[in-house]
Amino acid sequence: MLLQVSDLAIRSRSGGVRILDGVDLQLGAGEVLGLVGESGCGKSMTCYAIADLLPAGLVRAGGSVRFDGVDMGSLDEPARRRLRGGRIAMIFQDPTSHLNPVHRVGTYLEGALKRHRGLSGTDARMEAIRLLERVGISDAKRRMNAYPHEFSGGMNQRLMIAHALACEPDLLIADEPTTALDVTTQAQILDLIETVRAETGMAILIVSHDLGVIARLADRAAVMHCGRIVETAPVEALFDRPAHPYTSALIGCMPTVDPDDCDPPRPIRGSVPSLADLPGGCHFHPRCDRRMPACGLARPPLAALADGQSSACFNPVPTW
Amino acid sequence: MSRFLANRLLRALITLFLTVTFVFIVLRFSGDPAEQMLSPDATPEAMQAFRERWGLDRSILEQYLFYVRNIASGEFGFSYANGRPVIDVVTERIPKTLILTGAGLVTLILIGVPAGIAAALRRNTAADRITMSLAVGGYSIPSFLLGLALIYVFAVELRWLPSSGSGDWRHAVLPIATYGLAGAAGIARFTRSAMIEVLDQPYIRAAKAAGIAPIEIVFRHALPNASIPIVTMLGFNVAGLLGGAVLVETVFAWPGLGSGFVRAVSQGDLAVVQFMVLIFTAFMVSVNFTVDVLYAVLNPRIRLSDHGAH
After folding, report:
1. At CA B64, angle to CA B59 and CA B68, rounded to 5?
2. Do B201 and A90 touch (CB under 8 A)?
3. Which of A12, A96, A252, B256 has its CA 20 to 30 A from that of A57?
């Protein structure tokens, strides 16, 4: 396993608000894992926790993150720093605000090449230009002198991908990489991610609330709800026969353009509970059509079903 | 860029012209210079002779046009007090003031900016609170009071430094410290909040995610962004230094523009006061101009709009 997250828990420093509660994730070398769920369910915090980038108000409350067999918690800060941006690269939602407005494109890329690959001077510059060309930015030589505000959002996301590729990472963490972009640009960025994945064979952890993005890129997907993983499965299985009622409801919310499918999208009733005031047992039970008395009393464990699918539900949707 | 410069130059000239006019009008209506310059028991004939000598018997409009014409041709008149050319009286004081304010500015930057950065990095710790309490204290004390306190401690009690005058570098230490400490307090507070705001930006998190060392994040990623508002604030500080010169130079009997201004005003030496106000205004205009240029240098987004690319 390249990345193994076990029983990861995050809570707020001040009070007892649990942001993540016993999250387990596995990601093999070269695999693409999609992490999907509604806004605020903890997807991004999972990424930050893996990359050791938690905001000041949050702390790890338990669990471990192992990268390539090594417990990240056992490493000192310089060693973790060599991993970040080196073997683990990250790209973000809203690329423009994640790029330093006073640094030129060339400075940004050359910095990464210098830091993690020891290139400098002309070598770094040539490699930076090559990276820009590789992510489809035309007129790369001239654009080395540009600033991020002179680029469109899509170009800035390409630039972040070039920066991620600069260090030839084993794992790319992509936190909602297409959410802030318009639809045609989204498709281009997804194409680009697919291409670089095919070229480099790096593993990708892609976070999105958009099931379409997950369906397109991921080999396997994990569904997150209120800080917990409620289902993981190979992508085809997840969409064909979701086992958890929440997954099923999420898929039911997706509009479709299939002429044979006349079902209108079905919104999930009720609203997402507040993390500060979660219902007991399974956090989804008050909104669930399949709830049983036990659902409000105990947390259902993530139990393996067939074919690599597992679900945290006492009364899963029949998948046969 | 040349359009920007021409525009700024024109605005500077308009500012200077308006200041000259305003000061002229205010001063002419603030009292009779003859009464202020001459002793109270001067004869009416002596008063009249003084007015005639300096052209004060003519109409205000006439005096104004005469004054503006003279300024335009580089004639600034003579001191009513001792008859020396105003330009000599004032220019010999300019370097004295520039030494104090320049060294004061460097001192306040060297103390204030690092203190603010340190406090921002240790946000909400004891070190942060102590630094910021000192800064609030320093910010609240009027500069002349701080000057008197420094004189008391270092000149009167410890006898390390002279309390007044301008003989050698030792005379400059206390006034520079007064400027530096008072200004550093404000800049430290401002630097802290600017750094905190920048350190919360997404690009700082992205820099951490790229494995960049903390010291590099602070100085190469955060500080260049925070310096944009800090430079604006420093512009106000320079203005404050020049204004403060009136008090600080008087406290330390330092023969600069500030103490010279106080003396000229109390003597009713109109020609000197007018020219000094003109010099102060010219300083302020050039400080503002420098801030604008620095702003464009530091902030690439402004540079672009200046080229008319938007």
Report:
1. 155
2. no
3. A96
Helix axes A121-134, A153-166, angle to 10 degrees: 130
CB contact under 8 A, B202 and A112: no
Q: Which two tokens stand for residue A273?
A: 């509970």
Distance, in Å, from the CA atom of A211 to the CA atom of A35, rounded to the nearest integer, reads 9
State which CATH number among 1.10.3720.10, 3.40.50.300, 2.40.128.270, 3.30.540.10 fits the domain covering B94-255: 1.10.3720.10
> B20 and B71 in contact (C-beta within 8 Å)?
yes
> Pick from B113, A80, A75: which is nearest to B121 by CA?
B113
Cross-chain CB nearest to A116 (options B211, B299, B304): B211
CA–CA dist B259, B253 (Å, integer): 7
Measured distance CA(B261)–CA(B232) in Å, rounded: 27
Of A216, A213, A211, A255, nearest to A231 (Cα)? Answer: A211
Asked if B80 contacts B149 with a C-beta cutoff of 8 angstroms, the reply is: no
Give the mutation candidate from B125, B201, B204, B208 for the A interface (greatest A CB count, under 10 A). B208
Instruction: Quote the CA–CA distance of A173 and A44 in Å, as a whole number.
Output: 10
Please tell me the distance from the alpha carbon of residue A153 to that of residue A92, in angstroms, as a whole number. 12
C-alpha span between A126 and A144 (Å, rounded): 10
Over residues A209-267, the pLDDT tens digits come to 889 899 999 999 999 999 999 999 999 999 988 999 999 988 888 777 666 666 677 77
Interface residues of B toward A, Cβ cutoff 8 Å, are 201-203, 205-213, 221, 224-225, 298-301, 304
User: At a CB cut-off of 8 Å and minimum separation 6, what does A162 contact?
Assistant: A109, A128, A131, A132, A134, A135, A137
Q: Do B209 and A90 touch (CB under 8 A)?
A: yes
Environment class of residue A66 by beta-carbon count within 10 Å: exposed (0-12), middle (13-18) or buried (19+)? Answer: middle
User: Does the CB of A113 have a partner CB in chain B at under 8 Å?
Assistant: no
| Among candidate residues A108, A103, A67, the one with its CA nearest the CA of residue A87 | A67
Cα atoms in the Cβ-side hemisphere of radius 13 Å centred on A284: 30
Residues of A in Cβ contact (< 8 Å) with B213: 81
> What is the predicted ipTM?
0.88
Record: contact A100-B301, CB cut-off 8 A? no
How many CB atoms within 10 Å of residue A181?
22
pLDDT tens readout for residues A136-194: 999 999 999 999 999 999 999 999 999 999 988 999 999 999 988 888 889 999 999 99
Pick A53's closest partner by Cβ from B201, B209, B301: B209
The sign one gets for the Cα dihedral A134, A136, A142, A146 is negative
Instruction: Kindly state the average pLDDT of the residues B193-206.
Output: 95
**CA–CA separation, A192 and A198 (whole Å):** 10
Q: Which two tokens stand for residue B132?
A: 């910021």
Cβ of A100 within 8 Å of Cβ of B221? The answer is yes
Dihedral sign, Cα of residue B23, residue B24, residue B25, residue B27: positive
B156 is written with which tokens?
């009167």
Mutation target for B interface from A67, A98, A157: give the one with most B CBs within 10 A: A98
Q: Which residues, including other chains, have CB under 8 Å from residue A234's CB and lie 6 or more apart?
A: A219, A220, A221, A307, A308, A309
> Does the beta-carbon distance from A102 to B205 stay under 8 Å?
no
Q: Residue ranges of the domains in chain B?
A: 2-90, 94-255
Q: How far is CA B130 from the centre of its chain?
A: 28
